[in-house]
Amino acid sequence: MTRDRPAVLVYLSCIRYREVLVLQGSPLLGVACTMGELTGPKILTLLVFAAASFLLVAHIFSFNDWAGIASDSKDPNKSAEVFLTKGLSPQEVMGLSFALLALSLGLFTMLPRQTLLLAVAVTVLGLFYSHPATNAKAVPVLSSAPHLVGGILHFLLGYSLFGGIDRRGFMLALFFALTFTAGHLNQEVRDHDGDRLSGLATNAVRFGRRAAFLAGLAIFTLAYADLALLALSGVIPAWLVWLPLVLYPIHLVWSVRTLAAGLGFDTVSRFQTRYRLLYAVMGVVLLAALVTR
Fold first, then answer.
1. How do residues 54-71 score in pLDDT, each as one tens digit?
2. The whole model's pTM is what?
3. 172 within a domain of the structure (yes/no)
């Protein structure tokens, strides 16, 4: 396909802005946990971090798109949006991905060393997950491990910006790691038909959509329980215990309805939109509580 737009706009159109922005919530909440009093220098540091974090996640998604182009092109739910339809070759998207990574790590070198090292760790984990040589994303059970570990690292990325990594940081990170892992299982359920068509042995393909969906629900349940424990133990303000008590039943009802309606692409996509709204509410409340604590 020939390009009818300037090259830079074509490249920029291949960045998955929505997904990248959604994943900024965890590290930014990590920042809020250790930021303390807001000052001019801290604002500047935070702006550098926000840009670096955005570019890092954009790299991970674009690298994943490069690695999965063969299967995505066969998936009727994705084929119309792959980068090939926008006029870019795999080599060009690989170049975009590593340009984003270079910019990101360049900015991270301006931040504390521990934050830079965590960014490098996130990068390595992303390569392990997506690269065809390892192809961890297509190995049942193993595909969830990078999301659990990556969820911890991504939160600590922000937590490390203004403070040391401590027990409290790991306790908070576990909530985000569980959420990230459960969300990935739902994504595998959503993409089941396309992945099976491409011969990818994801959890949903190997064990079935229902089993993968119920596993995701179980892990989401653990995440809500963990949030309640964080409040009861004083890691976060105690009054935040109402968040899981109010929001989990809503999540559970939506889960049951989704299961009853069938686990097709559109049904699971609607469910993802709904529970992400719940997590957006949690994120805003948590941020307000941490900043004003």
1. 999 999 999 999 998 988
2. 0.91
3. yes
